[in-house]
Amino acid sequence: MHFSSIIRLTALGCLLFFTQIVYVNAKPSSPSANEVVASWPTYSAMPSTGSNLQKVRFHLQQAQYPGNGSLHFSMATQAFNGLPQRSAESSEYFYLKARIAQHEHKFEEAIADLNQAIKLQYDYPSAWLLKANLHLIQQQHDDALNACKQLIGNSALALATVCSLEVSSYQQDNLAERYRLLKRQFSADYFVVNEQSKDADISAQLWFEQLAADMALRLQQYEEAQGWLSSDNLTEKPLSYIVLWADIQIAQSNFSNVIDTLQPIVAASAFKDDALLIRLAIAQKNLGAHSNTKTDWVYLSKQRIEQRIARKDNFHAADITRFYLWIEPQPALALKWAQRNYQQAKMDEDLRLLQQARAQYEQAEGAGK
User: Fold this and answer.
1) Which InterPro entries match (predicted)?
2) Can you list the domains of the chain with their CATH numbers?
3) Beta-carbon-side half-sphere exposure of residue 229 (alpha carbons within 13 Å)
4) Which residue of 198, 230, 258, 270 has the lowest C-beta tally within 10 Å?
């Protein structure tokens, strides 16, 4: 069985590339384009003082790390619901509201919140970046490109350029050309890290590396894709980075490397992320090391999938599809969940999942006749 880029975490399974850089002002009520704070901070303790807006920001940031998503998104929502009424007058309030709506897959609601944030402060790069993502998820490419263009003049030109290259790479047959342009205009060390803006520079660099690696993977240029990402200190990287790294390894049939690298990360997490469980199970299944015990990744992923289905959890439809495609093949269930996933998100990744599920189902139906 060949595992290509279709087994990557979908855009809905993580905080999307374009939302990773958040611009905020020292004043919580008015985010500025001039100060960048990374959404990938180093692990830090919950601030003992500060506004609820700061707490929402903190939990949304921490939710991007492996094992943190469920708890910190819940705490972010709780803190947001406790905001005073006067907070609703700020652009950051509506931006954070959109981030929460995005996590809940309420994309139209999130776009409406972002429009309100932009109405209050037009010069708000993070709102435009998130807006571009939400349109991209829904295949609204013209709207996504327009959002990228709004970054020109009110933030670093590099952000606008990379944003536009990413969106346009999904249009027609633009991928190879956009990847070539990305490599020509930028490099792995383009975002130089300095002490005065260390967090922001690291965030921008990680964001760029993921974009470049993702494009290379979509082009099936696996060695180049692997070259963009580092396996060093993966425990300090966002979940989206780790999943992309794993998908590149699986695409090259490096199943032992996936097990050896991801196993300690997942084992150390209080909550085991669905995306990592699925990839460990895929690797284990291909190595023929399935033991059907309570410490077995195939066993654990099956338990998680059954829980998601019992709860009618459409948020994880893509990973449920992957389970029934490649771990415990059941063509009818794979197609059912692929269709549900495509109702929510329409990235190329989601379409490929649907096509793969439909092909497997039709093959099974033909064999049964």
Assistant:
1) TPR-like_helical_dom_sf, TPR_rpt
2) 5-230 (1.25.40.10)
3) 28
4) 270
Q: 3-class SS at 268?
A: coil
The model carries a pTM of 0.85
**Statement: residue 42 has pLDDT above 50:** no
Q: What residues does 155 pair with on adjacent strands?
A: 152
Q: Tens digit of pLDDT for each residue in 206-227?
A: 888 999 999 999 999 999 999 9
Nearest Cα residue to 361 out of 325, 331, 322: 331
Residue 339 buriedness (CB in 10 A; 0-12 / 13-18 / 19+) = middle
Q: Report how far residue 276's alpha carbon sits from residue 67's, in angstroms, rounded to the nearest whole number.
A: 10
Q: What is the pLDDT of residue 362?
A: 96
Alpha carbon 39 to its chain centroid, in Å, reads 13
Least confident of 72-76, 331-335, 343-347: 343-347
Instruction: Please choose, from the candidates 282, 323, 281, the residue with its C-alpha nearest in 3D space to the C-alpha of residue 298.
Output: 281
